[in-house]
Design brief:
The chain has one domain. It is an alpha+beta fold. The chain is built from 8 helices and 6 strands. α2 crosses α5, α4 packs across α5 and α5 crosses α7. The strands form 2 sheets. It has a 4-stranded mixed sheet.
């Protein structure tokens, strides 16, 4: 009897003890095999993006957690996705699949967004996701919050670092959208953040046939009844990036339980304040 009791406890506790994996995108069958893309520029693109990202954020991670930032380039994996988890020593680990990089809409700016989004699962703070199907909060920020972290904290830092090193000349901006971006932005960093978000959210939109291609001129003006901790639709995610670009709290860390800390907040009278989380995924308490 004691054996069966112990076995039941193990079966219950083990799934809770195992580290969760948080995917950038919902599961889909979309794949880009290695033979889809034979050029070397995307191979070099992901290698250099990872190298620059680690150079910028390894100390950021160590100062806050005492842990090592691990990034895995899973070039042979054809599925269009990336994910965040922790290794057995608690080190934050980001994996980016080759299928994501090989996607025709993925630009170099988009790779930086994906890396920033995954880092946001570790440092984006509240609101956080639940652990599996339980009501226990996990270590991971919600998907929309990871996007918000990317726009408000992470991409400004990496693009500033690239500007200082002269590395920005190797970026692959979608110049056809430059005029739209210029109408929104008032500086170069803002423009690059929006183009990074557009590249990534176009990839997201290709996963579901009912998802429309996101556009700067067609925001999602819906208001959700309860905060969506899972994947918002691509337009809502782009709106998060656009709004977050204008948050002036770039150097203030988010808090693990208080969503007000480090964020730009809506005002009841002003409504959707630039810099705040959009109501298409976030419900203000």
């Amino acid at each position: 009897m004691r054996f069966f009791t112990l076995l039941i406890l193990i079966l219950i506790i083990k799934p809770l003890a195992a580290e969760q994996i948080y995917n950038c995108l919902p599961d889909s069958d979309l794949r880009y095999e290695q033979n889809f893309y034979k050029g070397m520029d995307k191979v070099e693109m992901v290698h250099s993006a990872i190298a620059e990202f680690k150079k910028t954020f390894s100390s950021y991670v160590f100062e806050r957690t005492g842990k090592e930032l691990i990034i895995i380039n899973k070039w042979e994996e054809a599925r269009v996705n990336a994910h965040a988890t922790k290794d057995e020593n608690g080190n934050p680990m980001i994996t980016i699949n080759g299928g994501m990089v090989r996607h025709p809409e993925m630009k170099k700016e988009g790779i930086y967004f994906i890396l920033c989004h995954e880092l946001g699962h570790f440092f984006g703070g509240a609101p956080r996701q639940f652990r599996g199907r339980s009501q226990i909060l996990s270590w991971s920020s919600a998907e929309g919050q990871a996007d918000y972290f990317a726009a408000t904290k992470c991409l400004p830092r990496i693009f500033s670092q690239l500007d200082n090193s002269g590395f920005q000349d190797n970026l692959q901006a979608d110049l056809s959208k430059q005029k739209e971006v210029d109408r929104i932005c008032n500086d170069r960093t803002c423009s690059k953040i929006l183009l990074a978000g557009l590249s990534a959210t176009k990839v997201f939109a290709s996963l579901k046939p009912w998802w429309k291609v996101p556009n700067f001129e067609t925001p999602n003006n819906s208001s959700i009844g309860i905060t969506n901790l899972s994947h918002p639709d691509p337009q809502c995610r782009l709106d998060t990036i656009v709004s977050g670009t204008f948050c002036d709290k770039r150097n203030e860390d988010f808090h693990p339980t208080d969503p007000k800390v480090g964020a730009c907040l809506k005002d009841e009278l002003l409504g959707a304040l630039p810099g705040s989380r959009p109501s298409c995924w976030y419900k203000r308490d």
